[in-house]
Amino acid sequence: MAVLTDPIADFLIRLKNATRAEKEEFTAPFSKIKADIARILKEEGYIWSYEIDTDGSFPQIRVKPKYVDKAPALTDLKRVSRPGLRQY
User: Fold this and answer.
1) CB distance 29 to 58 below 8 Å
2) In sequence order, what are the beta bridge partners of 52?
């Protein structure tokens, strides 16, 4: 497994790519902050559900994106704050 310098951006890009490819679900490496992001996305109505899969040697978070009339509920993502540029 590769080392990620920005795991939050990786999670968001996986979500964006999964919705563009019309996937029913996608997985990403688990972390508490990713679970919190998924919880917020569910509360806001951008994903159907998420669950934490602990069967393997490394836990994974499994997310089911939401589609409305075959179009993704989340159409575009942009992360403003990143490791080299902190904006709050």
Assistant:
1) yes
2) 61
Which two structure tokens, joined as six digits, stand for 84?
């080299």
pLDDT of residue 37: 94
Question: Which of the 8 DSSP states describes residue 11?
Answer: H
The reported pLDDT for the residue numbered 1 is: 58
Which of the residues in the chain have pLDDT under 50?
none
Share of the chain residues as helix, strand and coil, in percent rounded to the nearest 5: 30, 25, 45
Q: Count other C-beta atoms under 10 Å from residue 31's C-beta.
A: 14
- What pLDDT score does 70 carry? 85
Task: Provide the token pair at 49.
Answer: 């559900």
Please, is 69 exposed, middle or buried when counting C-beta atoms within 10 Å of its C-beta (0-12, 13-18, 19+)? exposed
Rounded to 5°, angle at Cα 28 from 83 and 75: 75
